[in-house]
Amino acid sequence: MMPVDGRSIVTADEMRAAEDVAIAGGATVESLMDRAGREIATAVRRLAGASPILILCGPGNNGGDGYVAARLLKEAGLDVRVAALSEPRTEASRAARHRWSAAVEPFAEAAPAPIIVDALFGIGLSRPLETGAATKFAELVETATLSIAIDLPSGISSDDGCILAEVPSFDVTLALGAVKPSHLLQPAANLCGKVRILDIGVPTRSRARVLDRPALTPPGPEAHKFTRGMVAVIGGAMPGAARLASLAAMHAGAGYVLLLGDAQGAPDAIVHKPFYPEALSDVRIGALLVGPGLGRDAEAQAKLDAALATDRPLVIDGDALHLIDPDAIKRRSAPVILTPHGGEFTGMFGRSDANKIDAARQAAVRSGAIVVFKGADTVIAAPDKRATVSRSASVWLSTAGTGDVLAGTIAAVLSTGIEPYDAASAGVWLHGDAARRLGPAFVADDLARALTAARASL
Ligand SMILES: NC(=O)C1=CN([C@@H]2O[C@H](COP(=O)(O)OP(=O)(O)OC[C@H]3O[C@@H](n4cnc5c(N)ncnc54)[C@H](OP(=O)(O)O)[C@@H]3O)[C@@H](O)[C@H]2O)[C@@H](O)CC1
Ligand SMILES: Nc1ncnc2c1ncn2[C@@H]1O[C@H](COP(=O)(O)OP(=O)(O)O)[C@@H](O)[C@H]1O
Ligand SMILES: [K+]
Q1: For the residues 71-88, what does the mean pLDDT come to?
Q2: Does ligand 1 have an atom closer than 6 angstroms to the CB of 84?
């Protein structure tokens, strides 16, 4: 059972293609199912101890995995029952069913059990479960003391984070071979519980990964405040937002933070001046941040235009995202990182039918910028189609000002000269780690200060 951080995210089609490569290399569907069933049995045994187990099997290969695991668990002496939604329909799952020597209970009549293993549907789910089956399924899962989904909780589609039927929430999901987008994308991700990967011997390839702890180095003995990274933050109509971003940049490790705007109440370490355009051409600026609390009037537009006209790496957030045209960003030669939440993203790029990973990728291609599409499932995407998805760090991030803190954090990492995609990813990780450290009901100011501990942990 492997943790998911840093691992590839694979769509259903990419998983099937990987399976085809394995089969072309001499494996068979039966041998893959045998390996998957063995890994599942080992994991379930570890999780379930000696408690009685009910395995729910569907008609496809997900069900086949369930029959194999049931047989192995029974051979190991555990109390295992199987209930099937319908007869197996694939050759491999029929063979697996055949080797299960005990009874198969009708799904509708299955009695509850302390441990429920859901092997109804995996990546092959094509429509919602029928109402009766969905109700029975929810009852069995909700009354269990431990519920384990094989590959995916049945009723969520693999690639877009959508829930097709009413799906109960699981304690553990065992992803076969690789995580799928719906293990990370909301709302489906919230039903998966703890996600662990089982190695089924099928190598996978993908341009998308789960966010991992970054490798940031501490300053060396030769460091001084400007080599550590200088961040300039442009203030505006709502000065608190730029102050929060500046505070975050300092606590995330910037060597020097210049706040061009109202700094009333900000720590003395933050250098502040009224905004003047020439300040932006200081070559020591490693990252310029514009947008938090900027306002949306002509003055705000003039500040944004001045920032765009520089050759400094730029983070664009908040109000500035409402003022900017994605095509104008593409004309810029210095790096740009955009940090929209859902509303800002739609305002800039329009509504998309693509899943959140592909929508972020398309936006990155269109703008030529790194796009940090925020939410409980933040996606970081690059114009070359790399994408990283963050697991939800803390639901308590849903409070005003945490986006300003993220923008300042990313600017601090970017100012050190790190590649923009890596800087955005590291910033999202630091932000999430600071939130995890704080627990419930923090405010954005606390979050900015907690970045010191997050940065120190690397
Ligand atoms: N990839 C790999 O490397 C490996 C994959 N493995 C495993 O295989 C799984 C994928 O197997 P799979 O393709 O057979 O799909 P699966 O999810 O079992 O269901 C498809 C069946 O369900 C049916 N059906 C769909 N929706 C329905 C509904 N609402 N209500 C009723 N029926 C519905 C659908 O019918 P159809 O849509 O064709 O009408 C079809 O008959 C994968 O998740 C993993 O567990 C491992 O064994 C080994 C290595
Ligand atoms: N429910 C949630 N779970 C996890 N993270 C969240 C949730 N809601 C918001 N966030 C995170 O909190 C931050 C909020 O940013 P944003 O909406 O721009 O806030 P603000 O504009 O008030 O600063 C983002 O980093 C986002 O990913
Ligand atoms: K399943």
Answers
A1: 97
A2: no
